[in-house]
Amino acid sequence: MRVAKDYTGYTFGQWTVLHRDTDRGTKYWVCRCSCGTVKSVCIDNLKGGTSLRCQKCKGELSRKRMTTHGESKTKLYYVWLTMRNRCYRSEVKGYERYGGRGITVCEEWRKSYESFRDWAMDNGYREGLEIDRVDNDGNYEPSNCRWVTRLENMQNTRINKKVFYHGKIYTRTELADNAHLSRRLVGERLRKGWSVEETLHYNPVVGNNQTLRRKHNGK
Fold first, then answer.
1. How many CB atoms lie within 10 A of CB 140?
2. How far apart are CA 101 and CA 137, in angstroms?
C-alpha cells in the first residue's frame, strides 16, 4: 500500500504546512500564511502555484501593485499625469497644442512615473516650478526639458516663439519690451511675415494700419 507523502513543514509561497486536514481527506493540508491566517488548502493548488497566500494577503498585494510609488496625490505626479494626458487624450483641454500637433512623451517617462520623478529630482525640481520644453516644437524628453518659473514658462509658449536677431535669441515679448512696442503689435507683424528689422523699426504714417507696409515702389 502506497503511503501518502507528509508535507508537514513544507512552504509554498507564503503558506507553511502545519498538518494534514483529516476531516477533508488526503489532499487537504492545514496551512498558516505569513500573516498568521490558518486555512485548509488543497495540496494540488499548493504544488501547482495557484495558492501562494491567503485572500487577505492577496488583496494587499493587489493594492500595492496599483499604487507602487505611493505618490499619486503629489504635485509632481500631477505634472506627470497632465503631461501624458495633453499628449495622448484628445478630449483633454489643450490637446490641440500638444498631441494634436505631434508632441509626444518619451517612452521611458510615458511608461514610468518613477523614471520621470527621478529625472525631475536630479534636475532641479522643487514645488512651484513648471516643466518647460526648450524647443517648443520638440517632445517631452530629458534632453529637451527643464524646470522653470511660471513667468519663464509663459515666455516659451508656442505663441511666443523664439526669434534670432543680431546674433542673439529673443522671445517676442523681449523684443517688444526692448523696443518699447506693443507685444500684440510685434506678434502680429511677425505672424504676417515681417522681418524682425521691419517689425521693430517700421513707422507707418499716422492713421495707417500698423501691420500693413507700403509697397517698395512707394505706391
1. 21
2. 9
In a domain, 4, yes or no: no
Say whether both 103 and 85 belong to one domain.
yes
Residues 86 and 148 in one domain: yes
CA Rg, the chain, in Å?
A: 32
- Tell me the CB-side half-sphere exposure of residue 196, using CA atoms within 13 A: 18
User: In the structure grid, which three cell numbers stand for residue 201, read together?
Assistant: 523699426
pLDDT above 60 for 217: no
Residue 80 lies in a domain: yes
What angle is formed at CA 145 by the lines to CA 142 and CA 151, rounded to 5 degrees?
165
Do 105 and 129 fall into the same domain? yes
pLDDT in tens, 63-99: 666 555 668 788 999 999 999 999 999 999 889 989 9
Alpha carbons 78 and 191: distance in angstroms, whole number: 34
Closest CA to 17 of 45, 48, 38, 44: 38
State the pairing for strand pair 130-133/145-148: antiparallel
Strands (E), 112-165: 130-133, 145-148, 162-165
157 — pLDDT class (breaks 50, 70, 90)? low
Task: State which amino acid sits at residue 11.
Answer: T
Sign of the CA dihedral with 132 first, then 136, 141, and 143 last = negative
Based on the domain organization, do 140 and 76 belong to the same domain? yes
| 3 state SS of 159 | helix
For the whole model, what pTM was predicted? 0.46
